[in-house]
Design brief:
The complex is a heterodimer.
Chain A (H helix, E strand, L loop, with lengths): L6 H24 L28 H11 L9 E10 L4 E12 L8 H19 L4 H7 L5 E10 L11 E10 L2 E9 L4 H7 L29 E2 L22 E4 L1 E2 L12 E4 L3 H7 L6 H4 L8 H6 L2 H12 L5 E3 L12 H12 L4 H8 L69 E3 L16 H8 L10 H24 L1 H11 L1
Antiparallel strand pairs in A: 1-2, 1-3, 2-5, 3-6, 4-5, 7-9, 10-11
Helix pairs in contact in A: 1-2, 1-3
Chain B lengths: L3 E10 L3 H15 L1 E3 L1 E3 L4 E4 L4 E5 L6 E5 L2 H20 L5 E12 L8 E15 L4 H26 L14 H4 L7 E3 L2 E8 L6 H14 L1
Parallel strand pairs in B: 1-8
Antiparallel strand pairs in B: 2-9, 3-4, 5-6, 7-8, 7-10
Helix pairs in contact in B: 1-2, 1-3
Classes of the chains: A alpha+beta, B alpha+beta.
Organism (chain A): Lates calcarifer (Barramundi)
Protein name (chain A): Autophagy-related protein 13
Subcellular location (chain A): Cytoplasm, Cytosol; Preautophagosomal structure
Chain lengths: 511, 218
């Protein structure tokens, strides 16, 4: 078989297959990163784009692929497989699909390696780009984030499809005949995702004696490593700026594609591919932009409230509100803890901050799911639907059933020479027992100067934070307008009845 | 040489026509486009690089890959938009067909014009349905996404049979095989045509021909 192939053709073919395998892995893993891929066309050949396709190389993925290949090439009986699996935040995992690059014995001895095989491998890569967006795992990968992540694993050798469950489907991406065998690329994907939804609900407490990782490790197989794979945002630790994975490892294998328009019968007249040592700048271009450490980790970042609570960012976030806002916010204490109330000035603010950060983030999450005004924590008995609005104080009085609520009728601010000396827990300001849950934050507007002007920003806000109620919002005027509305109701009803056909036609149009 | 002909059929809602056509046409063109050729001395040439772009559909649960070329995208969108308008204007029973034909030019001697010889024709038959409520639309969104996925697999299967492709041309003949008008990519020479079928199942062009024939016969 190989004796018909010239040494140069054999060398070229091996190189094509090797780089085809590496690019295949890149396309598959990048398609499961969870984000849209965009690469630019270039009218001039860059010398580094194998198969004339702009497919960036994530260094870690190349490293994993080379590790799996271990210097071998996909061949007859030696398949390269990329397994894509899903892992939930509870630790459950499930294989979704397995992509296989295989070779069989069927040879095409007449095919020209450096022309036809190369172009067909290019077409096969384009097909792979298209098919990776069609299998069910693509949609799952686009939604990965807090609840689950997508992992990949590369292995070499025998194809293992047992983890895909019953009824898995297979799609063939394409085949390319070569003088040493036919390269086949296919994907087997799971169809039964119901397994995952059932497992998600099996959250009963573990019975004593069962190992927690009982369902995590895959079925044992001599060729199957213990780990489930790398996340599709994987980045090896201790790596900066691409590190040892920068660019193409084999410095001699940058491809400059140059083709001949001579008829195929004149093979050997001009050697068709030349290799150039990579320019360092060019090699850098091969790196996926994820050489920037932050960018590799990028998936959709869902800044759920739970995440905010569970990290110290919550404290920073809350303090940011206090410092730059022009409104007065009430910070709740953590379940009746009074430690934050007593001192004055800076110490008080620090105490308030500490009291805001509860020891149990879940508890604080529960506390904050009840919305009463903004950032207010009230006992459940005092929570009403009408108050479940930020700034409910500015709603018309008719909606408010709790007249003593400080958010509706804020108490008069105590006379104080300087806002800096206002107490967090001043008796004069908190006129009602219901305000025990509220902590007045020492108000320090950002960028304001202290006591240098007759009226600084802080004083201005304190003085005008309790404006008198607008006349139009007073009860007797609103009730008067309601009475007028009721009186005019019969007339309006008569008009509507007259135009009933018009309304019916409108409704029909909408359907 | 016989022209290879493939037919794809899709049933979509009116607002999905444009995206469904773009998805299929771009998928085909992705496989039938190369980088720009740069001819050198001694009869060799190098090829530019083709970039790709993921496009999410708004009215279909589907993402497709197209060539990263705004010029090519504009041309395809214009053709699809004309097809969509023609479908909308044809009446409520929207049925039509859009064809993407790849051809080669064969030079003829003066005074005869160059001959266009198709070597591959993709016909996409579209059947437009009207849906009654939002729930049906949601189901249609998912189902059409799955159907388009199947069509992409069909396209890939045909293309990877590696049947006839024009030979790589010399510099003087490149315009007979490839569309060299774009600055970033080079698709094979192609043209897009469409036909609208009226509710009687006959195409508009057929009806016009019959009318003219009947008029002349009188």
């Amino acid at each position: 078989m190989d004796s018909d192939l010239s040494p140069q053709d054999k060398k070229d073919l091996d190189k094509f297959i090797k780089f085809f395998a590496l690019k295949t892995v890149q396309v598959i893993v990048q398609a499961r990163l969870g984000e849209k891929i965009c690469t630019r066309s270039s009218s001039s050949p860059t010398g580094s784009d194998w198969f004339n396709l702009a497919i960036k190389d994530i260094p870690e993925v190349t490293h994993e692929a080379k590790k799996a290949l271990a210097g071998q090439l996909p061949g007859i009986g030696r398949s390269m497989c990329v397994e894509i699996s899903l892992k939930t935040s509870e630790g459950d995992s499930m294989e979704l699909e397995t992509w296989c690059l295989e070779m069989n014995e069927k040879c095409d001895k007449d095919i020209k390696v450096s022309y036809t095989v190369y172009n067909r491998l290019s077409v096969l890569l384009k097909s792979l780009l298209a098919i990776t967006r069609v299998t069910p795992a693509y949609k799952l990968s686009r939604k990965q984030g807090h609840d689950y992540v997508i992992l990949y694993r590369i292995y070499f050798g025998e194809v293992q499809l047992s983890g895909l469950g019953e009824g898995f489907q297979t799609v063939r991406v394409g085949v390319v005949g070569t003088p040493v065998g036919t390269v086949t690329l296919s994907c087997a994907y799971r169809t039964n995702l119901a397994f995952m939804s059932n497992r998600q609900f099996e959250r009963s407490a573990p019975i004593m004696g069962i190992i927690v990782d009982h369902f995590v490790d895959p079925p044992c197989s001599s060729q199957r490593p213990a780990n489930m794979g790398q996340p599709c945002n994987y980045r090896a630790p201790d790596e900066e700026d691409g590190g040892p994975f920068a660019g193409v490892q084999d410095s001699q294998e940058v491809c400059t594609t140059s083709f001949s328009t001579s008829p195929p019968s004149q093979v050997g007249h001009t050697h068709l591919l030349s290799y150039q040592p990579p320019a360092l700048a060019g090699a850098a271009d091969l790196c996926h932009p994820a050489a920037n450490p932050n960018q590799v980790r990028h998936q959709s970042v869902y800044f759920t409230f739970r995440q905010i609570v569970e990290t110290h960012q919550y404290r920073q976030y809350h303090w940011l509100i206090l410092n730059v806002s022009v409104l007065l916010y009430f910070i709740p204490l953590s379940s009746g803890d009074d430690d934050g109330l007593s001192q004055s000035g800076e110490g008080r603010r620090d105490e308030g901050r500490r009291s805001v950060s509860p020891s149990d983030p879940v508890e604080s999450l529960n506390a904050f799911t009840r919305k009463v005004g903004a950032f207010v924590n009230k006992p459940s008995t005092q929570v009403t639907a009408s108050l479940d609005l930020p700034f409910a104080a500015f709603a018309p009085r008719g909606l408010d059933s709790e007249e003593n609520d400080p958010m509706v009728q804020p108490p008069d601010s105590p006379p104080c020479p300087s806002p800096l000396q206002a107490s967090l827990h001043s008796q004069g300001s908190e006129g009602s027992g219901q305000q025990d849950d509220f902590v007045m934050v020492d108000f320090r507007p950002a960028f304001s100067k202290d006591d240098l002007l007759p009226m600084d920003l802080g004083t201005f806000y304190r003085e005008f934070q309790n404006p008198p109620q607008l006349a139009s919002l007073s009860l007797h005027i609103s009730s008067q307008s309601m009475a007028d509305d009721l009186d005019s109701l019969p007339e309006k009803l008569a008009v509507y009845e007259k135009n009933i056909d018009e309304f019916d036609a409108f409704v029909d149009m909408l359907q | 040489m016989n022209c290879r002909s493939e037919v794809l059929e899709v049933t979509v809602e009116a607002r999905q026509v444009e995206e469904a056509m773009l998805a299929l046409l771009h998928t085909i063109l992705l496989h039938r486009s190369t980088g720009k050729f740069h001819y050198k001395k001694e009869g060799t040439y190098s090829i530019g690089t083709v970039g790709t772009l993921d496009i999410d559909c708004d009215f279909i649960d589907f993402t497709f890959v197209r060539v990263s070329s705004e010029e090519l995208d504009r041309v395809i969108r214009k053709a699809v938009s004309e097809f969509k308008d023609a479908l909308n204007n044809s009446g409520s029973d929207g049925m039509g067909q859009i064809s993407l034909e790849f051809y080669q030019k064969k030079k003829s001697r003066w005074p005869f014009s160059d001959e266009c010889i198709p070597w591959e024709v993709w016909s996409i038959k579209v059947n437009v349905v009207n849906l009654a409520n939002e729930q049906e639309r949601q189901i249609c969104r998912e189902k059409v996404g799955e159907k388009l996925g199947e069509k992409v697999i069909n396209v890939v299967e045909v293309i990877n049979r590696h049947e006839y492709l024009p030979k790589m041309p010399t510099q003087s003949e490149v315009d007979n095989v490839f569309d060299t008008s774009l600055k970033d990519v080079q698709p094979y020479l192609y043209k897009i045509t469409y036909q609208i079928t009226d509710s009687l199942g006959t195409s508009v062009s057929t009806t016009m021909r019959r009318l003219i024939k009947d008029t002349l016969a009188l």
